[in-house]
Amino acid sequence: MAKITIEDFDATRHGNPMWYIDDAQRERHLRAPTIVSYKVCLVRVYGFTFVFHSLPQLRLCLEYYSKEHHPSSRLPVYDKNLGGDHWEAQRWFEKLPQYLLEKPKRSKVVAALTKALHEYSQVAEAETGTPKKPLHEW
User: Fold this and answer.
1) For residue range 80-109, what is the model confidence (pLDDT) as tens digits?
2) Confidence band for 72, pLDDT divided at 50, 70 and 90
3) What is the model's pTM?
4) Is the dihedral of CA 60, 95, 88, 90 positive or negative?
5) From CA 108, how far away is CA 7, in angstroms rounded?
6) Rounded to whole angstroms, how far apart are CA atoms 116 and 138?
């Protein structure tokens, strides 16, 4: 059973693993913390909690889980100066638990993310207007 929660941002509890995709809500909050509310969406399914800081993040994750097959996530070393350890070069979808991609679990994850998208879209600040790029270009 999936649990969807929308709550006020707390820097000690709500990390943003997809910060390089969309960090507009946090930046807006830092400029005017008392004017604009900052809500995050938590989706707990199969013992894993997704943390979304904006609708573009949630949509991208839903797109990822909606696909049955994924292209290679291998990055050529010469393409970008990634440096550092392996975990520093991993993109957001490479850090997700692999067991959630199993067919029966994936369909429930997609259902939970779809429901979360509907609920989180009621929060006006969650739509940040970040331009969409193809899934594997992030």
Assistant:
1) 555 555 555 677 788 889 999 999 999 999
2) low
3) 0.82
4) negative
5) 22
6) 22
Phi and psi at residue 12, to the nearest 5°: -80, -20
Residue 76 banded pLDDT, cuts 50, 70, 90? low
Q: What is d(CA 29, CA 70) in angstroms, rounded to the nearest whole number?
A: 35
- Kindly give the interhelix angle for 103-120 and 55-66, rounded to the nearest 10 degrees: 160
Q: How many CB atoms lie within 10 A of CB 77?
A: 10
What dihedral do alpha carbons 86, 88, 61, 1 form, nearest 10°? Answer: 80
pLDDT value, residue 105:
94
Return all residues near 50 (Cβ < 8 A) that are at least 6 apart.
42, 43, 44, 61, 113, 116
* Distance from C-alpha of 60 to C-alpha of 21, rounded to nearest angstrom: 9
| Of 59, 52, 68, residue with least CA distance to 18 | 52
Joined tokens for residue 138: 């992030």
Q: What is the pLDDT of residue 88?
A: 56
Q: Could you give the CA distance from residue 19 to residue 52 in angstroms, rounded to a whole number? A: 10
